[in-house]
User: Fold these one by one.
Assistant:
Number 1:
Amino acid sequence: MSNQDPAPRKIIPIVADEADGELISLYASHQKIYPRSVSGLFSNWRWGMVWLTQLIFYGLPWLEWGQRQAVLFDLGARRFYIFGLVLYPQDFIYLTGLMVISALSLFLFTAVAGRLWCGYACPQTVYTEIFLWIEKMVEGDRSARMRRDAQGWSLESVLRKAGKHLIWIAVALWTGFTFVGYFTPIRELGTEIIQMSMSSWETFWTFFYGFATYGNAGFMREQVCKHMCPYARFQSAMFDKDTLIVTYDGQRGEPRGARSRKADPQTLNLGACVDCNLCVHVCPTGIDIRKGLQYECIGCGACVDACDTVMDRMGYARGLVKYSTDNAMKQGWSQAQTLRHVLRPRVLVYGTILGSIVLAMLISLTLRTPFKVDVVRDRGVMARIVASGNIENVYRLQVMNATEAAQRYKITVSGLPGLAVSSEDTVLVESTQARWVAVRVQLPPQGSTPGSHTIHFEIESLNVPGHVTEKSVFLVPR
């Protein structure tokens, strides 16, 4: 609404046919953000995390462990291979532990320094950085892209944009291929692609994940962080006045204004901020940090690098925009005082709980028995009296070998006087395989009273140390 309007306009959101009305949109159209490239400490950290995460993501499927892929989640065979570990669906507790560790890590990092995950390791941030770098290499820097978009379509702009999108699509499809390679052996998947014999599900997930990468990192970018990511909405619940966040020092920076390098800001009654707007130009979500902390801020530190560069050029002290805490800014703490207050009870509690759970998981994995046994009583065969006069029950045992070598297991039973296994008591299970075994258990007629009695199957590995005990019941007919 203009300040020269003699009277307020009547806002009609949809209807436009009234004589005294004017159609005015209640929603601002999306303004494309052109993030400017920046260099500095936090930019180096971001690119370091880009390299680290992508080397892990793209490289792990190609590593071999023995005669197989080092990390493979074989859903069809229900086997999960993680280097030397072979996990079964029964090991779901470890996935639960991993999720708890991830959640507590997020709480800890957020309590210490805000949205560290969002700014440095989130896939949305990482792939946006990669796609922005490709865009810069093909279309030029920020000013060149803005100028070319403002001029409209030309042969040069079409060729540049087409080349950019072809590279984006190639990276996105390779990402989808790598993702599926964690569930289908990646070398087999590559052969299937060459022979065009991929299954429907492999094809779907390759293109789905590729399309998601292409759309999110190439087009949606900051919209994902601002409108789709739920973390932006509840992050404030994990912040307090001693959380490190990207902060603008208003007392030092205001009043802001342009000036020459040789000018004395005190003589001009100006603060340290030269109002260059570089902190806005480099922000991937397009916010102005000088307006205070906003939920759109992902804590990437790009504005810190940009402002420090300007301060160096002007000959001013760094730190006009920096990582600090609300208490530190209000009370004028030094960096050492600020860091001491960061290690507060909340952080120590999160750290202690997180460390305890990680230690417990490591101990559990170290002491984990390398095989599993499920006992199912054969309901098709009731308790019966055999020719010798003994009472016999039949069970089915599933023995799962979680090692990568064939293993032999000995089966014994206890719980009642004279109770014994009357069928073959040793079983051979091939590497990383499961085998169902029918086991007959007999009891002398004088061994117990009629009814249901608790017994225990004891399965011992004859090749590697390991012992499993499973409970069942033995029925004695009346």
Number 2:
Amino acid sequence: MITRVGGLAATLVLAAACSPALDPVEPLAPDLAVPVLPEAFQRGMNLQPIGDYGGLLDDDQIEGALDALVRLGVSHVAVIPSYFQRRLGDTDFYWEPSREAVDTQTRAVVLAAHARGLAVLLKPHLWLAERADGAWRGDIDPSTSEWEAWSRNYRAVLLEYARLADELGVAGISIGSELTAVAIGRPEFWRHLAADLRQEYSGFLTYAANWDREFEAATWWDAVDFVGVDAFWPLLDGPQEVLTAPGCRTRMSAVRARLEAVARRTDRPVLLTEIGYKSAVGAAYQPWEWHDGQAADPEGQALIYRCIRDVFGAEPAPHIAGAYFWNWYTAPAWGGLRNSDFTPRGKPAEGVLTGWFSPR
């Protein structure tokens, strides 16, 4: 997924300082047609920010966000320590404000999640900081001269996170996210990396592939336990089209068919490591894009959440192992009916999730 980073941390801090926490949304009225999820299904949510763009958290923010996810019926939370490659062609990585601060924050969130009975998917994100000409992390493709240093540094980062994950008893770790060029072009690197991580870590492994072609083109899924997919498929073919419930189910069912085909071919179940749509007019057309001035459309977001629920919640086993929605911000006031971001917090989509995820 491509996200715009400028000013995010400052906005979150301002929202948290100036507004009260949003009240939780009650689940929608019981619907006998809502699919009942099997116990093993990973009812997931991505949690932002964790040391993201310099935005560290206080204890109240951590605990408040996790308490809200418990009320939502979430069973698994994807905890995201972010780090950065400044530009294409670089081989070094950096953390904001520091590696020590981000890892301390990550540890605190994992421990607080475990204290609430939540399982954790540790999901380190490498971001491309300077994205000239529309470049993004999927374009990171070290040259022959750069490869040794880049791969060595990447391996070292993941080994450290694997050791942290093992120490904390984390359920799973994602060994990468949307690194399309490297994921497709360097299969042996990922095979060796997964094998090395298994020497340090006893939980499950996945990788969060981009939705467009990466998840089908990668050839090394047998090295991990789940086919991870960041699922941001367009549900419309043009910006002026209007999404309907039947049209959404048709498009989403076709997505599920593609995912299940990969699951059968690789003999690995699929984890939707990210799935979600903004509560914004036109969000179903290019859900990965940000556009300034998008008007809020909370009911449109709820329609898509119901569609995801109905398509992926119906008899998910054996091919669909779970869904991690994108995303839940830790700033307590980030959400609400006027907010056009991805978060379902304080919107009808939150009620859809609560009615689906909560045990019945």
